[in-house]
Amino acid sequence: MTLTATSPAPAPAPAGPAPDLAALAARHGLVESGARPCLPEYTRRLWGRRHFVTAFATARLTAQYSRARLGQLWQVMTPLLNATVYYFVFGVLLRTKEGVRDFVPFLVTGVFVWTFTSSTVLAGTRALTGNLGLVRALHFPRAALPVAYAVQQLQQLLFSMAALTVILCCCGQFPRPSWLLALPALGLQATFNTGLALVMARLASRTPDIAQLMPFALRTWMYVSGVMWSVSHAVRGDKMPHLVAVALEWNPAALYIDLTRFALIDSFAAGQLPPYAWAGAAGWALLAGVGGFVFFWQAEETYGRG
Amino acid sequence: MADAYDARTPTVIADDVHITYRVHSGRTAREVHAVKGVTFVAHKGEAIGLIGSNGSGKSTLLKAVAGLIRPARGRVYTRGQPSLLGVNAALMNDLTGERNVVLGGLAMGMTRRQVRERYQRIVDFSGIDDKGDFSTLPMRTYSSGMAARLRFSIAAARSHDVLMIDEALATGDAAFQRRSKARIAELRATAGTVFLVSHHHRTVTETCDRALWLEAGTLRMDGPAADVVAAYEAHAKAKK
């Protein structure tokens, strides 16, 4: 059949774009679509989407329990039930509480602070792969998704902290000025978590199988982070090689957990913290936060393609 | 040739665009070459229809124009940020209609203030509150027609430089279809260039002055809408 095709013949395509069209685009001030903006511009655009980030996070948080009969009450009930289970397994059955004063506050603080990191990292792996429709339909800096997921976990943490306050008061730990130290500790942890969520989002968008491995990796990380046992007890004396002791003490999750315990629990003294704990916590936050953001940005134009 | 192009203001330039998808199924990964070297220049004030059989690469090409997919080879240049009239993906069925209006508006890049200002218009346009106070109920309780109307109303609430419309949007009852057709015409008037993907050839010849016919990822024909549609129909008939 004959066609009055004006389209370019599927002739051997030139190696690069034809120069005349590129020149035409340049003459009329057209810019390349889908090109990755530079880092400052990217940051500016992400900031411009901050309302979307918070609205998306709140929407997800609300939608989570919207079908349950007890509704938003689960926001507080879930962490409380978690803490109960851990108390029975590690406090009563395995008796890790021996030698730890105020074991219930110690354990519950550990569980809640650990959960903040683990659920943010896990959410990060799904931030892009679980929202491909959104990524393929609308234009926005993709970092908005992992950041929104991290914000959702931060909101969840506030509910956990409310539950924690009740538990601490029940155990005779009442609010005092040192509790304010929990704010910088958790703030640094939130920055660290967000950076890690950005890293995981990029890795999982390329290799979705990572989502299958995460539960195992996270469980291993939890067991070495002193969630239900005391790191300072374990590294005391010469029982373990020096390198292992240093690794245990400088593990970011252990640092954030112990700093929060230090802030909230009377009997958890500064002596139980490794030296330079605050500097370590800030260093990890800076490294993960900035590094994660740059790492995520570098693959911006590839998200949603695979 | 460059001089002929220069007479009008270009809004979208596709320069030898190739798009490949990586498709994973189990342990095998395949490269799908969805668009194979498409070149065209769109100008201000044009309404361009995209036709072609299913899987010919129409939607993929639009996504590249919107900057949502980066071409494997070639370049797309645009004036301003083209937008796809698609907001469905941002909405959540477990949330109320009113919260979805806010979420969808923010997802499309509106500010909180713009969303507040346009909120009532969006709800009124969708007509979801015509029969009771549905905007305060979760979207999962809506009929499919109602949900589609709300989605279109949110998507159409904002004007765009380069606008791309997928026909699937025009759903709902006759009254709503009339309203949405009028709204699309309005959006066309304010947008620089409109792209319309459609299988309804009458819609293309009625609303577009130019059409692109894609077949198996290549551009078969580019010209006045009526001519291209006629050629495409002749081709489709010959295949039967």
UniProtKB/TrEMBL annotation, chain A:
<dbReference type="InterPro" id="IPR047817">
    <property type="entry name" value="ABC2_TM_bact-type"/>
</dbReference>
<keyword id="KW-0472">Membrane</keyword>
<dbReference type="Pfam" id="PF01061">
    <property type="entry name" value="ABC2_membrane"/>
</dbReference>
<comment type="similarity">
    <text>Belongs to the ABC-2 integral membrane protein family.</text>
</comment>
<feature type="transmembrane region" description="Helical">
    <location>
        <begin position="276"/>
        <end position="297"/>
    </location>
</feature>
<feature type="domain" description="ABC transmembrane type-2">
    <location>
        <begin position="70"/>
        <end position="299"/>
    </location>
</feature>
<feature type="transmembrane region" description="Helical">
    <location>
        <begin position="181"/>
        <end position="204"/>
    </location>
</feature>
<protein>
    <recommendedName>
        <fullName>Transport permease protein</fullName>
    </recommendedName>
</protein>
<dbReference type="InterPro" id="IPR013525">
    <property type="entry name" value="ABC2_TM"/>
</dbReference>
<feature type="transmembrane region" description="Helical">
    <location>
        <begin position="216"/>
        <end position="235"/>
    </location>
</feature>
<feature type="transmembrane region" description="Helical">
    <location>
        <begin position="157"/>
        <end position="175"/>
    </location>
</feature>
<feature type="transmembrane region" description="Helical">
    <location>
        <begin position="73"/>
        <end position="94"/>
    </location>
</feature>
<keyword id="KW-0997">Cell inner membrane</keyword>
<keyword id="KW-0813">Transport</keyword>
<keyword id="KW-1003">Cell membrane</keyword>
<keyword id="KW-0812">Transmembrane</keyword>
<feature type="transmembrane region" description="Helical">
    <location>
        <begin position="106"/>
        <end position="128"/>
    </location>
</feature>
<keyword id="KW-1133">Transmembrane helix</keyword>
From TrEMBL, chain B:
<dbReference type="InterPro" id="IPR003439">
    <property type="entry name" value="ABC_transporter-like_ATP-bd"/>
</dbReference>
<keyword id="KW-0547">Nucleotide-binding</keyword>
<feature type="domain" description="ABC transporter">
    <location>
        <begin position="12"/>
        <end position="238"/>
    </location>
</feature>
<dbReference type="Pfam" id="PF00005">
    <property type="entry name" value="ABC_tran"/>
</dbReference>
<dbReference type="InterPro" id="IPR027417">
    <property type="entry name" value="P-loop_NTPase"/>
</dbReference>
<keyword id="KW-0067">ATP-binding</keyword>
<keyword id="KW-0813">Transport</keyword>
<comment type="similarity">
    <text>Belongs to the ABC transporter superfamily.</text>
</comment>
<protein>
    <submittedName>
        <fullName>ABC transporter ATP-binding protein</fullName>
    </submittedName>
</protein>
<dbReference type="GO" id="GO:0005524">
    <property type="term" value="F:ATP binding"/>
</dbReference>
<dbReference type="InterPro" id="IPR015860">
    <property type="entry name" value="ABC_transpr_TagH-like"/>
</dbReference>
<dbReference type="InterPro" id="IPR003593">
    <property type="entry name" value="AAA+_ATPase"/>
</dbReference>
<dbReference type="InterPro" id="IPR050683">
    <property type="entry name" value="Bact_Polysacc_Export_ATP-bd"/>
</dbReference>
<dbReference type="InterPro" id="IPR017871">
    <property type="entry name" value="ABC_transporter-like_CS"/>
</dbReference>
